[in-house]
Specification:
Elements: H1 23-26, H2 31-45, E1 50-56, H3 64-67, E2 71-78, H4 81-90, E3 98-101, E4 114-119, H5 130-139, E5 140-151, H6 156-165, E6 174-175, E7 190-191, H7 194-203, E8 206-214, H8 220-225, H9 228-238, E9 250-257
Parallel strand pairs: 1-2, 1-4, 2-3, 4-5
Antiparallel strand pairs: 5-9, 6-7, 8-9
Length: about 260
């Protein structure tokens, strides 16, 4: 059981309502990263099927179509109305995907009613995910799973950089925004230490079952040199072995409630 009880948070997370930002277009040129995330999800969900899957902060529904293979019902839980409007078109051939305006820190699901949560590319906007982890614990069924993706500060290049400086990797989230964008009105953008996130999950009552290192070949230069199919082929073989050292820029955690054997 979690060690503390967290009250409902009032944090807002609707920054993607900015009409100048189209998250669908953000993925142009990021086909390798998208494929790498699908590879990770396949590894973590292999052999599993769920009654109800919820994609937290899923934007326009990029991964919801994929999740339909693993769940009878899929809900896109997104805090941005603009993203849901884009999703209405993106998911037009998938009307069974439920699109709902939801804040991750205050979800409307009944206790223990969700069998699978995915939260991909959300943690980099959460310097303190305590409230979100508490909501996942509360809403997750006893036999359910959650997949939490973390923007990883402890990736290989940062490890080398800190080693050469004789510095330890920071335990707290690192704000990676430029100085010009560090103000109260800007959306938070942080990288996390995976060991710290593991402790935060444990504190919320969530135990890490499996870890994967994802997007291990993320590089503008490599994308120019290698076909996507070749990069994804290497990615499939690297995700598990490189997870032990948190090599890649993205870490996927598969978690369950601690009391589940």
């Amino acid at each position: 059981m979690p060690k503390t009880t967290t009250t409902k948070a009032t944090r807002r997370a609707d920054q993607y309502n900015d009409p100048t930002h189209n998250y669908l277009r953000y993925w142009d040129g990021r086909e390798y990263e998208h494929a790498a995330e699908e590879v990770a999800l396949k590894k973590l969900l292999r052999g599993k099927h769920f009654k109800h899957a919820v994609d937290i902060g899923g934007g326009y529904g990029r991964l919801c179509i994929f999740l339909e293979q693993y769940a009878d019902k899929v809900t896109l839980a997104e805090p941005s109305q603009q993203q849901l409007d884009i999703a209405a078109d993106f998911l037009k051939d998938h009307p069974e995907v439920d699109r709902r305006l939801i804040q991750a820190a205050d979800m409307p699901f009944k206790d223990g009613s969700v069998n699978l949560f995915t939260m991909i590319r959300v943690m980099h906007h959460l310097p303190d995910p305590t409230a979100e982890f508490a909501e996942i614990y509360r809403s997750l069924s006893d036999d359910g799973y959650a997949i939490i993706e973390v923007a990883n500060y402890a990736h290989a290049r940062n490890r080398v950089k800190h080693l050469l400086r004789g510095e330890r990797l920071p335990a707290k989230p690192v704000d990676i925004r430029s100085e010009a964008h560090k103000n109260e009105d800007e959306i938070p953008f942080v990288n996390h230490n995976p060991k710290t996130v593991t402790r935060q999950l444990e504190h919320a009552g969530l135990h890490v079952v499996h870890t994967l290192s994802v997007s291990n070949l993320r590089s503008t230069q490599l994308k120019k040199l290698l076909p996507k199919s070749v990069m994804v082929g290497f990615e499939k073989g690297l995700q598990r072995p490189l997870s032990a050292v948190y090599f890649g820029p993205s870490i996927f955690f598969l978690v369950r409630k601690q009391h589940v054997a």
